[in-house]
Amino acid sequence: MSEKTILRALKGERLPVPPVWMMRQAGRYLPEYRATRAQAGDFLSLCYNPDLAAEVTLQPIRRYGFDAAILFADILLLPQALGLDLWFVTGEGPRLSTVTTAAQVAALKPAAAIHDTLSPIYETVRILARELPRETTLIGFAGAPWTVATYMVAGRGTPDQAPAHAFMAQDRAAFAALIDLITQGTIDYLSAQIEAGAEVVKLFDSWAGSLKGRDFDDFALEPTRRIIAALKSRHPGIPVIAFPREAGPRYAGFARATGADCVALDNSVSADWAAAEVQKDGCVQGNLNPRLLVSGGDELVAETRRIVQAFSQGPHIFNLGHGITPEADPDNVTRMLEAIRG
Ligand code: CP3
């Protein structure tokens, strides 16, 4: 049995057909996902139910035969494990109790306490490691510290991350202490996922694009570098995908600066530019606009082929530039896969 395609691409191998998976591939666009979520009761109950979380992780693998499965969980479970309240408002998104002062940072639980809350997630990983087809790679994940901090400070998603920027401006040392705690928790969380059977881990820095200059270095690049160094020292050879979404020109050199094996590209980056400036350092992942899985048609096929072609001279994992949306047509995913695999 030859090595799994995703692991080969992550080692820098150029493959004739790129391996493929999709961010949010287990999600509301699939009727079988909606049925299992209803069975669980709500989104968080689904995340913390290992049998049902494993079931929704497997659904898109059965339907489409993706080359990777991503653990079903959420980046906001870590703040909950650090002591914040977390709930989801249907149709609106996540809500958390907030952390806006040095005293509130100091009152959070220590990183070592996270496993009390997160152990069901490790059980989901163990089930998946047993049940996935042998050719499918299992990806674990966490939020990158900056993105997780933006939700902890604001208590919700924000268009410009203004509350986190304000905390940073007002008390940079306290904000840095929050980033340090999340960094440590993330190392322990991802380590536990790897011990349970995750073969690759991915760091989602969805709001990296709002950090500029020194702030990008201190709060996007450096925590990512620390997490990757710690994981690779505990688990030699573990591949890491970094997703500094909307980093723009800062995508160039990101893999070298952080030690990431692969950089995931959002769809604001041109594939031709990234092939020249990012792929020269190793594997890239991306970057179809998820909107095209709603609209479909010839544009979907042409754009899928264009991305495959643009990255065909180096290691590439096909993916979207962001998560698939609930409005996407499941048949368009089939059309995308046909355009990739022929
Ligand atoms: O990719 C996957 O399918 C793996 C599981 C996964 C989820 N969220 C499941 C989910 C992953 C990797 C995430 C990451 C995540 N979560 C991010 C980073 C990536 C990104 O999207 O930018 C962020 C910022 C979150 C926080 C979060 N979770 C938000 C803002 C929301 C609400 C927005 C929305 O899409 O509804 C969630 C909910 C969420 N997480 C859903 C899923 C499948 C939808 C929940 C539902 O079923 O109602």
TrEMBL record:
Substrate binds at residues 24-28, 74, 151, 206, 322. Its EC number is 4.1.1.37. It holds the Pfam family URO-D. It comes from Paracoccus thiocyanatus. It is found in: Cytoplasm. GO terms for biological process: protoporphyrinogen IX biosynthetic process from glutamate. The gene is hemE. The lineage of its organism: Bacteria, Pseudomonadati, Pseudomonadota, Alphaproteobacteria, Rhodobacterales. The record marks 74 as: Transition state stabilizer. This is Uroporphyrinogen decarboxylase. Signal peptide: none annotated. Its main location: cytoplasm. HAMAP family: URO_D (MF_00218). Homodimer.
